[in-house]
Amino acid sequence: MSKTIDQRSRIFAIYAENLDLLHKSGLLNGLKLEFDQTYICPLCTRQFSSKDLDTALKNHLTLEDAPPKSLGGTANILTCKECNNIAGYKIDAHLQAGLRALDARKFLPGSEAKVKFIRGEEIVQGSIKVEGDGTIKAINSYKNNHAVKLDNYIKNISPKAGKNLLRIEFVKPNSNDRRLQVGLLKTAYLLAFEKFGYAFILDSIYDPVREQIENPDADIYPMQFWFTGPYTADQIGVHIVKNNGIECFMSFFSLNTSITRIFSAILPLKKNPILQIVAGFHAYLALNTGEAEFLRLNNPAGYLSNLDAIKELYKITEELRSRDQ
After folding, report:
1. Which residues constitute the domain of residue 116?
2. Which pLDDT does position 311 carry in this prediction?
3. How many domains in the chain?
4. Cα–Cα distances in angstroms (integers) from residue 309 to residues 122, 197, 248, 274, in the given order
5. Is 92 exposed, middle or buried (0-12, 13-18, 19+ CB in 10 A)?
6. Alpha-carbon gap, residue 238 to 294, rounded angstroms
């Protein structure tokens, strides 16, 4: 058995057992499982059996990196191939490109950006690369330029030629701001699934999250749901905001490019419209001098296979949900 097949089989077993435990404990609200061992894709919520680990199948179960591997994530969950492929090019690529473009505009060591070098009416394509020691290099290649134009540019830019004033114009990155933000939502949601399994994500309150991920250009989930630092590494995880009126899950995670950035993102806990929760959270931050009160969810037993830990978590969330709306 290859390492990848073994890894997918192991992950399948963990979450299939979590689903079975919840089902036998009556915590799935009557959801009928289609197979003896069932895995539900957290993005499309279709049900799969162990047979769907077979890569010869059109829509088999695939490793899913959360966050994306290119940003420092690891594969600890599965999604179906259709969801993985669509989310990859519609969302993850924009998240990576947008953050790397931000690195480049700040000239962070290790960053590189596509630019246009403009001298008078001469325009050539190239890139600006910042080395680890901070040295900045301007790079041109014949691959991306007309050979004669590039030769003339190099000749005229020589210190001996004089008139060397250059204008550098950053090429707009292949990144859509909304899709970048949906990438943050997808990461937060999948990390919540990784930690809690099926305890919450099958609830209808997460339908807007899934719909937004499936339709990244649509206006479904309020884009003010995320925040960035200053946070510290010990805050990383999925926790509960306990303050009255803004009860929610909040996922903290790091994304690594030339630097490490830590983001936080609001996920639903109550059945209130998510726009109301997000707006309430921003209003709280604007009107209060204190910080949001977090309940750190770090039971040593974990929340996948330990029924006592799962029931404790349900009790906490039900108490918060029962507060006056």
Report:
1. 104-170
2. 95
3. 2
4. 66, 12, 19, 27
5. buried
6. 10
Residues 55 and 129 reside in one and the same domain: no
Query: Where residue 50 falls among pLDDT bands split at 50, 70, 90?
Result: very high
Locate the DSSP E strands across 86-183.
112-119, 122-130, 136-140, 167-170
CB 160 within 8 A of CB 191: no
Say if residue 76 is in the same domain as residue 208: yes
DSSP-based three-state secondary structure for 188: helix
Residues 309 and 25: their CA atoms lie apart, in Å, by 13
* CA atoms within 13 A of residue 14's CA, in its CB half-sphere: 17
Tell me which of 149, 170, 191 is where a domain ends.
Answer: 170
Q: Are residue 251 and residue 226 in the same domain, yes or no? A: yes
Q: Which of 150, 170, 190 corresponds to the end of one domain?
A: 170
- Across the range 18-46, mean pLDDT stands at 94
Task: Tell me the pLDDT tens digit for each residue of 61-109.
Answer: 999 999 999 999 999 999 999 999 988 888 999 999 899 888 888 888 8
d(C-alpha 263, C-alpha 293), whole Å: 17
Single pTM value for the model? 0.88
pLDDT at 309: 95
Tens-digit pLDDT profile for residues 301-319: 999 999 999 999 999 999 9
Residue 212: is its pLDDT beyond 80?
A: yes
Torsion over CA: 77, 79, 84, 88 (sign):
negative
**SS3 at position 324:** coil
* Rg of the chain over all Cα atoms, to the nearest angstrom: 24
- CB-CB contact of 213 with 223 (8 Å): no
